[in-house]
């Protein structure tokens, strides 16, 4: 099947400027993801992205009728050519590539269907009219021209199936599949003035290791659904900035939280709240965990001060127990206890979430509740655990 026959003229009408009715609205990210360079084992499958078509499915949070998308080449060392791109309503949470073809909209970039993203940069599409409901499944189809096959900006832990078809096409039957996202960075909606975003900075536990592929059941997803059910918080989106294996201070996978927070927290549109939930990979690694805990405290204080200068509220979240995992030792546990005690008592935070208290074994608070274990690694929750985490958050923090 060839590309949509929707003409560029029609697309231009759909991307018409913001009218008077939108004058009091502002752009808010309804979905976003943290990015890093794709490691060799996380590169796209054959036939690769260059010269081919790629459909990625995401689930947004708050609704909107005008949208725009950000595409990123931040970690690439060669230009990325996008020859065309479309957005449409997806018919699944990722289990199939099918879309509502009537909802498909051509994306343009300063009026052009094609765009080249320079290394280290990102581009944002022109606004397009498309009605997104709350928790909407969205398909982003990108037709690539020339680009690197080795140095690609990505989010490895998408927990969502993406579809790769050969050539310039919208036919994804028989497409190759991969559980990674590439190049896409966020989706923004034009929202009422009172709308805003909550951004969660984290590691694999925020990224969702242990959740169901194509299930969209991370703790951040559960939080989003709860917020949308409450009239006082239904205008708040939740943006997941978790990276598997990430550290705050040094090492780990992807850029450290200390280096990436200015982008991942403060360069998202409409941010009103930040949740800081990271540290287990630092505390469980080599070195003195008590010293690391104090270094993490310094970073959290720095982020909090910068957020407050921007009018953003900060929520601290405790590090969950990991006894039974190779990370555990008396020193590592002492570091966790020190950090958590500080988090729960720090007056600079605008609120706290005690994930450790909600997820620990009542008979042994230094380990996870066995009911929530994923693969018995004593570190990552299963789907029930992530649901419990989302339910443990007091929505009054965001009122």
Verbal overview:
Mean pLDDT is 95; it is low at 1-18. The protein is built from 9 helices and 22 strands. The longest helix has 21 residues, at 289-309. It has 399 residues and is an alpha+beta fold. Strands 3, 5, 6, 7, 10, 12 and 13 form a 7-stranded antiparallel β-sheet that branches. Strands 1, 4, 8, 9 and 15 form a 5-stranded antiparallel β-sheet that branches. The protein is 22% helix and 28% strand. The chain has helices spanning 8-14, 204-207, 219-228, 257-266, 280-283, 289-309, 330-345, 355-359, 383-391, and strands at 26-32, 36-37, 53-59, 64-72, 80-89, 105-106, 115-117, 122-124, 128-132, 137-144, 153-155, 162-165, 176-178, 181-182, 184-191, 196-202, 236-242, 271-277, 313-317, 351-353, 360-361, 364-368. Helix 3 packs across helix 9.
